[in-house]
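Teaching note: in complex prediction, the entire set of molecules is handled at once rather than each chain in isolation. The prompt given to students was simply: 'Predict the structure of this complex.' The entities are:
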Amino acid sequence: MRVSLFVTCLVDQLRPEVGLATAELLERAGCSVEFDPRQTCCGQPAFNSGYRSEARAVARTLIEALEGAEAVVTPSGSCCAMTRRYRELFAGEPEWRARGEALAAKTFELAAFLVDRLEVTALGARVAQRVSWHDSCHGLRELGLRAAPRALLARVAGLELVEAGLREECCGFGGTFAVKHDAISVAMADRKIDELESLGIDVVTGADLSCLMQLGGRLERRGSRIRALHFAELIAGGLPALAAAAEEPAR
Amino acid sequence: MIHGLKAREFDRLSREALGDDIQRGAIGKATDLIRGRRGAAVARLPEWEELRERARAVKAHTLARLDHYLLQFVERAEAAGVVVHWASDATDATEIITGLVAEAGERPIVKAKSMVTEEIGLNHALEARGLRPVETDLGEWIQQLAGEPPSHIIVPAIHKTQAQIARLFAEQLGSAEDASAEELTAIARRILRQEFADAAIGISGVNFAVAETGSFLLLENEGNIRLTTSLPRLHLAVMGIEKLVPRLSDLEVFLRLLPRSGTGQHLTSYQSIFTGPAPGRGAAPRRGRGGGPGGAPPPARRHRRRALVGDELRRSSLQCIRCGACLNVCPVYRQIGGHAYGWVYPGPIGAVLTPQLAGIHEAKALPLASSLGGACEEGCPVKIALPEVLRDLGREAGEAQGEAPGGEGFGCGRWAWFMRTPRRYRWALRLARLGFPLGKRLGPFRRWAEQRELPRPAARSFRDQWKERSR
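The expected output is the structure of the full assembly:
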């Protein structure tokens, strides 16, 4: 199957390794992978601030870039969920609404695509670590993303999945919320991190880089030994990705 | 002027609340307990989602034809012997009520728990006339003793520990500092019984009003509402216009949703339906203002709730049945509690209602005080699209800031311009990368970096690396 990557602006600029790992996993699953550089962003930052016409302008760029693809895969539950809102976002523009809906219908979050669409779970990975999964809000509530990533982790040799009681609690990111109300945002992260530390895990992983930046940034500041890594990187890179994360110089 | 409104101070209040570990502990413990019970109660109803949809549809339908149902309700209620007064705002409402209380001879007043009376600052208005309304819901009574507004819609003293309540009672009532929960409730019962016996006026809210019969329904667990509405000679029920449902049979769905959502109960201990005064109890004499036969609801320009009715998204906020479920699942409420929201309604529904009922200029920080994770919407029994309304209000708050450079609106406009073509996108990111070392010390980045490490832009973007990979 030919798959077009929607890497998301955050991955493109902050952690390209996640995009490369996504391509790597899709190839291991037998897909041929393309990337169309006309893509920028899904429009969510403006949408979340209530600026719908700005969000539409950006969404049109994404629709134009990717609507020709056979299938679109993105390493973000949140950005994938955003495409599902194009229908409502373009309610007043029938043509764009139809194009937005068509794109949403063939856009998938990476884990959901691998497990539910391709029915692939074994990706030949080995990671001898205690790992906890963070269920990001948008992936969980808007895409129902729960079983698919766990099915992938279950097939990683050596990996022990440790379920946190607070796995479905918000990490405190929330876009501008993280800076507008930074103290509350950090308190929310701390609540989760306190539990993760008590579980003695090595890695917290998830399907959204934004949440992992929030948890990872706070973990690092607290001097924690726990690493926050996108699951694509964890599975594709295995131990080398972990070593790289551990060796990243303190900033 | 809205009594007790402090939503402008959200930043200060929330920071203070974050420092109160005892309060955070109390709220966490109590909301976990309620969430557990709610989850168990909901799990036993396979038709839960269907009930939510029915409730949403009833409320949405009623709000879309609100004037029709309001007039029908008033006609039927008056036919049953109720006297109806219209109020267009808080001042209007408190003046009508204090007028009725004066006519009744300013006698002792007991109150059942009611959010709308908190909203209009009724106790404050009555106290200003030298009266002493006594809250009879245990939690509300505790809050009244403490001189604080409620911090949760259905559990007013949720932020207090038992030890704090024992100390409060010791200070105010002279009881033992280490009184047990049983002793504390026995003290409350003894004092409140005397208040009920002495009261001549009972004031309550309304949970639901039925247009076809002119009836209204009150739900409770403590029995204090039964006493408040039956022992005193005069019962004043205060109701927001959004409390209506068309038919008596519509109550079925709400009776199943509200107790389960609020406390995880299958049903509250008491449900009281009032259709006119009890036999032998005459209605109070009608007062002139607004209450005459054929009287119409006040115009929308003076009445904030009516102003909301015209907008389909905004009026969904009026579907709220005040169950508090969104508070219990809100990760922000859990950290900061109810008082930080600066008015009567806390949590997600407060962030939605306060800017709309008190004005966006009074509550600009509230719509942004949400991570938009959607736990509130998932928990809402009437399916209010809370994140969607918050986003919409967020834009209004941004515009209220004046769209200044650096403001939300200005930022979104610039951002969207850069994101519209891949070329501009690459320029923007090149600029961002150059500016990063400096930007780290500025504005949003600094606020991020104060307590968290800031992610550093990658040396080479994905798109650059991909170009090489494909070569």
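Point out the following to students. Chain A has a mean pLDDT of 94. Chain A has two domains: 2-116, 122-247.
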